[in-house]
Specification:
269 residues, ECO RV Endonuclease, Chain A, six-stranded mixed beta sheet, three-stranded antiparallel beta sheet, 6 helices, 11 strands, globular
């Protein structure tokens, strides 16, 4: 099997994705049985008319989760069909998908799926995301990349590449599917990073909000070194639960007697 570049494979595969979820199916309906349809369009119309088809959620986080799961399933199915190795991550861990094996040139490649709603102005959809996309959690696996944090396949530093699949959509409140004009963008996270957090209450790194800049990979850093240096020096808060987990991970890395180790990046002695 010829190896694939993970970036190229993701771009090509995402170009064939179609968001085909039309709503939430309800078992009870109001129509005569059997229900017959000539094609998928006819079936959708009859399900809706019969009261079987309920709208997907409008709330941003809930709808984003639906899109993310659909896209992850699609990528995993495509990888399996092509004989490639891909694994799904944990629900709140990193990454969403891990690519590996000879089909991807060896090594491990992290793929994270991000979903953002287009902002809306009085004139219609804007060229900016409604809110900043979160790239990483800053005070755990990103800040201490040599440690194997819970919810991750392996330490952050073990990945040969990190890639984001960004799904941008316009909300259609009058449609049961809710999603309109879905666009998929594949970028390395550092290329679309800003110098702003994506949340004022959580320890998240934020992306730029211009959709043109997301497409072009035009963030606020010129090199990956500049990106990592800036964000790994950022004063993220570490709460008691994270500190307890960090202490446990560091204790597990203690050197044998007589061996002196350098402290992990971000820590001082």
């Amino acid at each position: 099997m010829a190896s694939r570049d993970p970036d190229d494979w993701l771009r090509g595969t995402c170009a064939t994705y179609e968001f085909d979820l039309r709503g939430v199916f309800r078992g009870r309906g109001e129509h005569a049985w059997p229900l017959t349809a000539s094609d998928e369009t006819d079936l959708e119309q009859k399900l809706a008319a019969g009261g079987h088809l309920l709208p997907l959620p409008k709330e941003s986080a809930a709808l984003a989760n639906v899109i993310e799961v659909s896209l992850a399933d699609f990528l995993l199915d495509r990888a399996a069909a092509e004989g490639l190795t891909a694994a799904r991550g944990t629900e709140r861990g990193y990454p969403d998908i891990e690519l590996s094996g000879p089909g991807f040139g060896g090594g491990y490649h992290a793929v994270d799926i991000k979903v953002a709603r287009r902002g809306v102005t009085k004139k219609g959809p804007s060229n900016y995301t409604q809110s900043r996309i979160t790239l990483y959690t800053g005070n755990t696996y990103f800040r201490y990349p040599q440690l194997h944090w819970p919810g991750t396949f392996r330490p952050f530093n073990d990945y040969a590449s990190h890639l984001d699949v960004i799904a941008i959509y316009t909300l259609d409140p009058d449609s049961a599917a809710r999603v309109q004009d879905l666009e998929l963008i594949v970028q390395e996270p550092w290329r679309i990073a800003s110098k702003q957090r994506s949340s004022t209450t959580r320890e998240y790194l934020g992306a730029v909000q211009s959709i043109d800049d997301l497409r072009a990979g035009r963030g606020e850093f010129a090199t990956p070194e500049e990106f990592y240096k800036y964000w790994r020096r950022f004063k993220f808060k570490i709460g008691p639960a994270v500190q307890k987990q960090l202490d446990k991970l560091l204790a597990g890395q203690q050197a044998p007697p007589g061996v002196v180790e350098e402290p992990p990046e971000g820590l001082s002695t």
